[in-house]
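re: ur question from yesterday

yeah so i grabbed the chain u mentioned. its 133 aa long if i counted rite. heres the sequnce exactly as i have it in my notes:
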Amino acid sequence: MLSELLTYDRIQIGTSLGAHETCIDAEALALWRSIYGDDVGGNQDIVPPDMISAIVMAAQLELTNPHPDGGLHAGQHYLLHHRPRVGDVLSTTSTPLSKEIRRDRRWVKMKTETRDQNDRLVYETTLTLIWAA
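ran it thru and got these structure tokens back, copy pasting raw so excuse formatting
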């Protein structure tokens, strides 16, 4: 968590916002599957791609907290390198790539990288956001 509100003016291109860790546990995976189903053919210890996306988005929200209310998620591009398993510890970093003002809106692109405990790249994301203030 940041010490001050992350306003558009405070976003520094190329400067990491830090890292957020998440441990993949069987209970969380079972809860996910009870809601969204099984998309991995019965392999009970492999994390579905959509769950990885949710983990990354939760990390992004934590790494930019506190941020102004009222922003919009305008787009994303994901690249899955490999699926983690139960017991893996994932570390997600977030770094601002660019920011610009278009039509009086504050557009920000963020790059996240998620790695496992062996420093193996799991997931990359480029997020496009409209920053509230």
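noticed a couple things. Residues 8-131 form a domain with the Thiol Ester Dehydrase; Chain A fold (CATH 3.10.129.10). also Residues 49-63 form the longest helix (15 residues).
anyway ttyl
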